[in-house]
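Notes, p. 3: input format for complexes.
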Amino acid sequence: MRTVSSVCCYCGTGCGVRVQASADRVLAVTGDPDHPSSQGRLCSKGRALADTVRRDDARVLQAEWRARRDAARIPLALDDALDAAAGRLADAIARHGPDSVGFYLSGQLLTEDYAVFNKLARGLVGTNNIDTNSRLCMSSAVSAYKKTLGADAPPACYDDLEAADVVLIAGSNMAYAHPVLFRRLEAAKAARPDLKIMVIDPRRTDTAALADLHLPIAPGTDVALFQAMLHVMARDELLDRDYIARHTQGFPALAARIRDCTPRAAQAVCGVPAADIEQAARWFGRAGAALSLYTMGLNQSSSGTAKNAALIHLHLATGQIGRPGAGPFSLTGQPNAMGGREAGGMATLLPGHRDPADAAHRAEVAAAWGVDRLPDKPGLPALQMFDAVLDGRIKVLWIAATNPAQSLPDQARVRRALRAAEFVIVQEAYADAETLDYADLVLPAATWPEKNGTVTNSERRISRVRAAVAPPGSARPDWRLACGVARRLAMRIAPHKAALFDYAGEAEVFAEHARLTAGRDLDYSALDYAALESGPRQWPLRDGMDTARLYADGRFPTPDGRARFVDVTYEPVADAVSSEFPLRLTTGRLRDHWHTMSRTGLSATLVQHVEEPWISLHPHDMRELALDEDALVRVRSRRGAIVLPARADESLEPGRAFLPMHWGSGFMAGDGVNALTNPARDPISHQPELKHSAVSVAAARLPWQAMGWLRGDAAALRRALRPWLARFAYAVLLPSALGGGSLRLRLAAEAAPDAVLLQELARALRLSRPAAAFDDPARGMLRRAGLDAAGRPDAFMLAGDLRAQSAMLAWADCGQAPAGLARLLMGRGAAVARGRTVCACMGVSDAAIAAGIAAGLDLDGLKAQLGCGTGCGSCVPEIRGMLRRRIPATAASAGSAI
Ligand SMILES: Nc1nc2c(c(=O)[nH]1)N[C@H]1C(S)=C(S)[C@@H](COP(=O)(O)OP(=O)(O)OC[C@H]3O[C@@H](n4cnc5c(=O)[nH]c(N)nc54)[C@H](O)[C@@H]3O)O[C@H]1N2
Ligand SMILES: Nc1nc2c(c(=O)[nH]1)N[C@H]1C(S)=C(S)[C@@H](COP(=O)(O)OP(=O)(O)OC[C@H]3O[C@@H](n4cnc5c(=O)[nH]c(N)nc54)[C@H](O)[C@@H]3O)O[C@H]1N2
Ligand code: SF4
Ligand SMILES: [Mo]
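Output follows (898 residues plus MGD):
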């Protein structure tokens, strides 16, 4: 057994982990007390990492390809697959030129992966068509940092959470998305109750629950709010005129612009009381140290760059930057979106924070790589790349470590593009990612914890990622797959370049990349793997020393050393609400799921927090639409529709709706959440407006309903049952912890399926010969339960009549087969309320917590008696919410989960 130090592969907090492993098994993952960014803390996702490590069929274990689109894919030796990829690329380049190739990569790649892909795309293929899912994530933050501060560098660090006396959280639900940082903020607030926290979010999230002031802003209107705050600060003389004069430029134009941006005017746009805007401005303007933390509520917007800039302006205008506790701190989403920005892993960037439009920058990179020149034609950002695939400009698309058939907006269009491409290469680690449906060639990728490399977290800290086990099957690290194709492609199109991809290992790739940062704002050219052995390092390195905070001297990386105010104006969201689409839908994250769930969906612990997708609506809208709790609804936007249950949620304002981003076509009928979302994008960052779509919600009349449950490995069962999703108007496959690991299935249709289809369904659910049955196929009813050889619950189905649902779920879970199974199936058993897990670490349900609250326990009492909240602490905000509301268990399941 050995232990390696590495980093959690989920969010940009970048917590350090220790991985205990035997030859080919990860035994345990714990927090690394020596990691300076996290000091041993992990959230529920980090603690469940070991559960998601798979080496079986849940993984892509070998390469596959298909000769024709209508053929099934067949396994292929890895060498042949790399040859095939090189052959298709060479062919496209020869026939249509280098820009007929596109690379769509991911903020979850390691810096070494980006470095090699970048050299392959720009240095060998000769195209700038290389972009990543960071386009959906961080690109507005990048654009705004560059426009205002002169370089793409978050100026603050995590220690500023404790040093600040005002924290402004905008468009971030860090209680869910950056839980370990939120833990620090909670602790800071507990230690110093006068620390002021403000949250700007259309929803009253668990993050907002910690705030002294919550501004439930109308989606998309942040610029108006920030400009009004600046207006108040100017009016009340809270600006740092001296800082503005000495360290910035462009303020007069902005000052003129905001003269009319009164809080009253902003109230009309943002739906936030003017008095609260005044309050927020005064707190910020009078703060000793003001820190802002912001993420997708600002970035994922058709005015994302303007939103970011308008917030940064508040800091520049008050001199709240470059000091402990002060600064505009954009939190990174993915674990290595920062590394991607450093390595130039986007169409609009080159390595070392360089610009592909700058000839000198191109020449520097070309020289470092040993190639003559880099292409000067601008590359296509993500959405435009898919447009180019659709209209035939791009023939070969290579996708790695991202799942665009779920995560890109306007899925109908994305899927048309994937079908239209001549050749799609998908480099994937997990076997059930939706995008694999469109792959002509599958390359088997190694994943965490099988990869070596580096990542950079939100506070500019570079950590080593270390492999704990070897990859299973033919899977290989992403950079190696890229090198394998690159060498073969070079032999076909430019043999002298083949040697450019002969790296001895990750250390050599990193060294080449790090050299490219020399003399740049992020300079870490002094680093190599040996230097990183002593622990993570925070760029830029000056005289060999880390830098915790940037711009302490008020000098910015612009030609004149001054930061810029940019003249921004409020622009409304792209998708206007109308009588046909009257509701404002926003989308976002849940605490225990990661994106498209290819990994978190495999953990029996993590799937328990929120077991299924639903749309949240304000109770008033539920009444207006005459919807009962959990009624199935059809949600429509101008681009698509999905069917799912609706639930009342007091954390929303009337007229607004929320959907989690996690469920796609691999889990539900239809194209998933992004069937609805809008591809409209910010003109500067090209980031799409994933946070706002105008939608309508109406009851879906689907009277025939069914549910099923099967014990076993949820991933394998899901693969077997996935074809059923397409056969019903509403269908979901839900990995479940019930009975120690299982899959649930929910279906609904306008009319009962015929008897043949029902029997087929029963067979798929292992219920052809059930232990107990209560059938009436003519009326579409089949109620059955089966036992395994040991007499334990194995499967059940309730088709056409769901009355027995909660009794059967309890039966499935408790593992006993009562004599009266048939009675239970008929719905004559006692209904058992099943709790929802709130505390994932200790397995404590909402029912148990509600009972504790009813018995008079406070937070400490609940922790002591039930153990909840004593593990990673990710559930504490939710428990606090329950305490505040003193809500009963069933209502808690409905309301507080998102
Ligand atoms: N549990 C979990 N954590 C994650 C991830 C995950 O998948 N799961 N993913 C990681 C990644 S890649 C990212 S990018 C981050 C994202 O982290 P966050 O940005 O914190 O997460 P989201 O839930 O997408 O959105 C944040 C909030 O923006 C609000 N919002 C919507 N529209 C607006 C608006 O117009 N203005 C304002 N001010 N707010 C608005 C939403 O109501 C939501 O609460 O999370 C990272 N961490
Ligand atoms: N509606 C809506 N949509 C959104 C968002 C939203 O807020 N709302 N947020 C957007 C944001 S911020 C983001 S970051 C994206 C995320 O969207 P995606 O990037 O599509 O989401 P993931 O599920 O993380 O996809 C990563 C894929 O890589 C695979 N994988 C894991 N490890 C490895 C590896 O080491 N190598 C390789 N080659 N593959 C690996 C995983 O199995 C998975 O299929 O979603 C965006 N889409
Ligand atoms: S906060 Fe959680 S998900 Fe993010 S890096 Fe830390 S342990 Fe991983
Ligand atoms: Mo993201």
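The first strand starts at residue 2 and ends at 7.
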